Amino acid sequence: MDEAVYVRFQSTIRNERGYFTGVFGLVNGLARDGKLTAEQERFRRTNNDWYNAAYPDPSSVDPTVYDRELHPGAAAWFKSTSRDLIKRVDGYLDVLAAHGVGCRMMRSSDPGRIVYEDEYQIVVVPHEGGPGQPSSAAIRGGDA
Predict the structure, then answer these.
(1) Distance CA 58, CA 139 (A)
(2) Residue-level pLDDT at 128
(3) Computed from CA positions of residues 56, 62, 67, 70, in that sequence, does the dihedral angle turn out positive or negative?
């Protein structure tokens, strides 16, 4: 079996488009909805700023990377070697847990077709029915 070289933290429930929202999107969504405490918002802002400074934003490098037509379901995965970035996710998981929002860690050696890569992360279009990707049945409205 291949060793998992990529790590992603994502929701346990599909969003309205049939995909699994990533950990940052989940916490940012709580902030947009005004659900974070002042302390949680400080944590979010401080750590989002840290992440923005610590590694490239794929959409700043390639504005089409998350284009829904070109790259449906595109999702970012950490490279497993990005330990400093991964360990900071724990605080985000704590925020989600405090709000009863499920989030799970996914590991894969082949999460999909890579559409962006830097030294810390990849963005992939997931394989059909793969992590974060709805199956054909889900797209048609069936059970996934």
Answers:
(1) 26
(2) 77
(3) negative
